[in-house]
Design a protein that fits this description.
By secondary structure, the protein is of the alpha/beta class. It has one domain. 47% of the residues lie in helices and 9% in strands. A four-stranded mixed β-sheet has the order 1-4-8-7, with helices on one face. It has a two-stranded antiparallel sheet with strand order 2-3. Strands 5-6 form a two-stranded antiparallel sheet. Helix 3 runs parallel beside helix 5 and helix 6 packs antiparallel against helix 7. The longest helix has 28 residues.
Length: 297
């Protein structure tokens, strides 16, 4: 990407200077701590099982989601003490800034006002309004506080384990989480969550897949305008498509267990994720991102 043409967002809360909140992440009542290998597996599984990864981290023993520990008081967020200097942080800040410009313009054309999310950069583990998560959870969006959470070391995992290197692959991850924020602002996320509470089994998974694929399409909408404004380099689109495919449910299941169970998909297959990302990339039209209107997305 031509990052020199992108502005850094002011909506970045850099907690990396605070240090991690302790070693290891305890699970269940026994105080078990995850080792390095288990953390890597949880990174993969967290991408597979929905927007909020905390149910994985707390529910390994009981099979149910743990009680959510609320974050301390919310009020005006403090600005970061200094601009991010780490390359991964700079990329994240600039991509967020560019998504703000794009979605502000898109919402304006639709007669609305875009309220940008805050990006929280953290080391080790973090407290959010959705509970506590470690770096093993991977990037996630919390609708309760309208924040994106990212430990930028995940980008190393994306490049090395998922074989999806490049700054536009990183941008896809951030733009996907911003897509969930757009769903939250438009009410789609709340409606789907209500339906999922009433549904079960395959129906619940199917709704989750449609929600995730729409976020992929919204990520593509941002990519369309980034490309239109000449902010992408040759090969960037291929990087993004590689990242979308790498986190497909079928690819992850095959890597983890050697076989694929389509009924258990929660994010969509590699082909589906690439398809909807390309829909947004090709059109830049949010109206074409209605994954819920498709019989088979």
């Amino acid at each position: 990407m031509r990052q020199e043409d992108m502005r850094e967002s002011e909506n970045v809360e850099d907690r990396t200077g605070m240090g991690p909140a302790g070693g290891g992440f305890p699970i269940g009542g026994g105080g078990i701590k995850l080792g390095g290998g288990a953390l890597i597996l949880i990174v993969i599984v967290s991408l597979l099982f929905g927007v909020n990864p905390l149910s994985l981290l707390g529910g390994l023993e009981s099979g149910t989601s743990p009680p959510v520990e609320p974050a301390p008081g919310y009020g005006p967020q403090r600005a970061p003490s200094s601009a991010p200097s780490d390359p991964a942080k700079v990329t994240a800040s600039k991509v967020l800034g560019d998504t703000e410009d794009v979605w502000t313009a898109v919402f304006k054309t639709l007669g609305g006002t875009y309220q940008p999310p805050t990006l929280v950069l953290f080391p080790g583990r973090v407290r959010s309004a959705c509970g506590i998560a470690s770096e093993a959870a991977g990037p996630f969006y919390c609708a309760e506080d309208q924040k994106l959470y990212l430990d930028t070391t995940f980008f190393d995992e994306l490049a090395q384990r998922f074989r999806a290197p490049g700054d536009f692959a990183q941008a896809y991850v951030i733009a996907h989480e911003v897509g969930h924020h757009v769903q939250n602002l438009t009410g789609t996320m709340g409606q789907v969550d209500a339906q999922r509470q009433r549904a079960g089994g395959r129906a619940n998974n199917a709704l989750s897949v449609r929600l995730e694929l729409q976020a992929d399409c919204y990520a593509g909408v941002w990519g369309y305008f980034a490309q239109k404004r000449n902010k992408l380099d040759p090969g960037d689109i291929e990087e993004g498509l590689a990242a979308a495919a790498a986190v497909g449910d079928d690819r992850i299941q095959r890597q983890m267990q050697g076989y694929v169970v389509p009924d258990s998909f929660t994010h969509g297959s590699a082909a589906q994720r690439q398809y909807w990302f390309k829909v947004g990339l090709a059109s830049g039209d949010v109206r074409k991102c209605d994954t819920f209107a498709q019989r088979d997305p």
